[in-house]
UniProtKB/TrEMBL annotation:
It comes from Nicotiana tabacum (Common tobacco). Gene3D superfamilies: P-loop containing nucleotide triphosphate hydrolases, Winged helix-like DNA-binding domain superfamily/Winged helix DNA-binding domain. One of its GO terms (biological process) is defense response. The keyword ATP-binding applies. Keywords: ATP-binding, Nucleotide-binding, Plant defense. Belongs to the disease resistance NB-LRR family. Residues 175-227 form the Disease resistance protein winged helix domain. GO terms for molecular function: ADP binding; ATP binding. This is NBS resistance protein RGA60. Residues 4-174 form the NB-ARC domain. It comes from the Eukaryota. SUPFAM superfamilies: P-loop containing nucleoside triphosphate hydrolases.
Length: 234
């Protein structure tokens, strides 16, 4: 991925001095946040920008929480800020970013509405500021960048890469998928294995499918499903 990293660093540090949005697009669990975080902490980025606020949006977003999260990244928040309206918080954020070359990392944004609620907070001072955005939705990426490139689409893993990822995340050191532990029956071990797969985003529990901490139904990640099908057909 070094070529992809170099290309993204180039988009974020070179070119127009106008404010630009650089998006990373891909299905859930494919590694958008991991890739964006690698970019965010790259020494080239750290030395380039005066401030680097970071916020995660998610499907259910609350504007006030996002504004407070961004504000907390760039300045100390006074106690009286709790009494301010969302508009006052947005104005405070604009003033905090004004005149500074900033990189804002907005992770996991799902809708154009969420972008509309935030975009006016980001001043364009012609100093090369950038916004790094991850999303599952190409429409959101195109909308945020006003239909101008660049946005980076995460490529699907090759078979060998899929196997290496699956192997590193699922199999134990002893190459056993289920490692029976002492004093635990097979059902308990299987439950623990399922929970591990969910934690690693390889299996997703459906909303409302848990009762008393028990998972009733779940879905398999598309990459994992495809991998299992290929293995079964061998």
């Amino acid at each position: 991925h070094n070529n992809e990293l170099d290309l993204m660093l180039d988009h974020l540090t070179r070119g127009s001095r106008e404010l630009k949005v650089v998006s990373i697009v891909g299905m859930g669990g494919i590694g958008k946040t991991t890739f964006a975080t690698r970019i965010y902490y790259d020494p080239v980025i750290v030395s380039r920008f005066d401030t680097r606020p970071m916020v995660t949006v998610s499907q259910e977003f609350y504007v006030r929480r996002l504004l407070l999260g961004l504000l907390n990244s760039i300045t100390s928040i006074p106690r009286e800020i709790c009494n301010e309206s969302d508009g006052q918080l947005a104005d405070r954020l604009r003033k905090g970013l004004k005149g500074r070359r900033y990189l804002i990392f907005i992770d996991d944004i799902w809708s154009t509405e969420a972008w509309d609620d935030m975009k006016l907070c980001f001043p364009d001072d012609g100093n090369g500021s950038r916004i790094l955005l991850t999303t599952r939705n190409t429409e959101v990426a195109e909308y945020a960048s006003m239909n101008e490139p660049p946005f980076h689409r995460m490529r699907l893993l090759s078979f060998d890469e899929s196997w290496n990822l699956f192997h590193s995340k699922v199999f134990t050191k002893k190459e056993g998928f289920l490692e029976v532990e002492k004093d635990k029956n097979l059902e308990e071990v299987a439950k623990k294995c399922l929970e591990d797969l969910i934690d690693r985003s390889l299996v997703f529990a459906d909303k409302g499918s848990t009762r008393n901490g028990k998972i009733k139904t779940c879905k398999m990640h598309d990459l994992l499903h495809g991998f299992c099908l290929r293995e079964a057909q061998r």
